[in-house]
Amino acid sequence: MGSSLLKTMFMGGSVLGLAGTAQAQLVIGTAPLQSTNPADTNNGIWHVDVTTGVSTQLYSDVGAWGMTSDNNGRIWFTSNDGGLYSFLLGDAAPMFHATVNPTEPLPSNETLQGLAFVDDTLYGWEILDSANNPGVHSGLYTLDPLTGTRTYIGDINESSNIAGIDADPATGIVYGVNDATRMLATIDLTTGASTDFAPYPAGRTDIDGLAAGNGKLYLVEDQNEPIHVFDIASGTYDAPIPTPFVNSDIFSGAAFIVPEPGSLAPLMVIGAVLLRRRR
Question: If one looks up domain 24-278 in CATH, what number appears?
Answer without folding.
Answer: 2.120.10.30
